[in-house]
Specification:
Layout (H helix, E strand, L loop, with lengths): L2 E3 L1 E2 L6 E3 L3 E5 L18 E5 L5 E6 L6 E10 L5 E9 L9 E2 L4 E2 L5 E3 L1 H6 L12 E3 L3 E5 L3 E2 L7 E5 L4 E4 L4 E3 L3 E3 L4 E3 L5 E5 L5 E9 L3 E5 L10 E9 L6 E3 L5 E4 L2 E3 L6 E3 L5 E4 L2 E3 L4 E5 L5 E3 L2 E3 L3 E7 L2 E2 L4 E3 L2 E3 L3 E4 L2 E2 L4 E2 L2 E2 L2
Length: about 350
């Protein structure tokens, strides 16, 4: 995808010289009706209609490392003042460029859009290299506009979030690896080399509204030491048919899993490291091979959730002994090999054979 530098009418924002498609244009729309003295530092990303008019140009901050400068070059026969634009990159000190490579699309609501093509081409954020992972190293809101399909390469990641705060909306799409888990309990085969999303920032992260499947691990909240702060919200996700641990939470801080489906994962649904308390609410755990929730002494709260057909519904241990640190209430357990080991009841829970003891 090429971005072409345009000549535009600086007062109306109408592109005078344009190719249909995605383009960058400079337009002096913030001069409050005055004829501008200069046309610098107005950087816009916009979709271009077939007739050359701009669709909702969006200002973008100079902190991106790009500065748009324009100079007056003439007038059209209709009397429009036209400009010649020059784009320079301040971050690298590069010379003026008249033709650019692809950049992440910016939607009309200001959300950066990610798809398979942009992930492979790179430039999703300043530090993002071509290929997987798509690295998000700047705060902001991001949204998928296609599935992300990971190659069968050992250690491949779909998205790495290294700074924030970040909101990642999967927008109904999937991050998919090459593996397949079928049946109840699951039998997994194929290539499970991938991690869907890795979080290694101390800033808050929210991931929502989509599917992570066919991976080794769907979400890995990664801490180098136990004192590294991590804070993640997983909401309205389907995390299914992954061969290993679907979600791993580590570090200090706290996280939330809300209104998710965690199903048919080969080992654990959610693995909670000691020192990382989690609120899990309104989530269904179905047919996970080992434990739906495995808490390593974490003081977490699980409520209003459903556990069906798992190896163990909730397992709360510290080292090799049951731990009372995890608290659970208002949950339903059915047809698990073992409903609950360890933990502390808070309010009624329904186990397979009746009220939980």
């Amino acid at each position: 995808m090429l971005l072409q530098i345009l000549s535009v009418d600086i007062e109306s924002g109408v592109a005078v010289s344009v190719q249909k498609g995605i383009a960058i244009a400079g337009a002096a729309v913030q001069n409050h009706g005055r004829r501008p003295r200069a046309w610098q530092r107005a950087l816009y990303r916009a979709r271009i209609r077939a007739d050359g008019t701009l669709l909702s140009p969006i200002p973008k901050a100079e902190s991106t490392g790009y500065v748009m400068t324009t100079t007056k070059v003439g007038q059209t026969k209709e009397g429009h003042v036209t400009t010649k634009t020059r784009l320079t990159t301040t971050a690298l000190g590069c010379a003026t460029m008249m033709l650019l490579g692809a950049a992440p699309a910016l939607a009309t609501d200001g959300v950066l859009e990610i798809n398979q093509a942009s992930a492979l081409e790179g430039g999703v954020s300043a530090g993002d290299a071509p290929g997987f992972p798509a690295t998000l190293d700047a705060s902001g809101s991001y949204r998928l506009t296609s599935d992300l399909v990971l190659p069968s390469i050992i250690g491949v990641h779909g998205i790495d979030i290294t700074d924030g705060p970040v909101q990642l909306d999967l927008n109904g799409f999937s991050i998919r690896g090459a593996g397949v888990c079928a049946g109840y309990p699951p039998s997994c085969s194929g290539s499970f080399f991938g991690v869907g999303v890795t979080v290694s920032t101390s800033q808050p992260v929210r991931i929502s509204n989509g599917t992570l499947t066919g991976l080794g691990t769907a979400v890995n909240v990664l801490a180098t030491t136990g004192t590294d702060t991590r804070s993640v919200v997983l909401e309205d996700l389907s995390i299914e048919a992954n061969s290993g641990t679907a979600v791993f939470m580590s570090g200090s801080g706290s996280s939330v899993i809300r209104n998710c489906q965690v199903s048919r994962n080969g080992l654990l649904g959610v693995d909670i490291d000691v020192g990382h308390p989690i609120l899990i609410v309104g989530t269904t755990f179905r047919s996970n091979g080992s434990s739906a929730i495995d808490s390593q002494g974490s003081a977490s709260l699980v409520r209003d959730s459903f556990f069906v057909g798992n190896g163990t519904g909730i397992r709360s241990f510290f080292i090799s002994s049951p731990s009372a640190a995890l608290v659970y209430g208002g949950n339903s357990f059915f047809a698990n090999t073992t409903d609950v080991v360890g933990g502390t009841q808070l309010g009624p829970n329904r186990c397979t054979s009746g009220p939980c003891p």
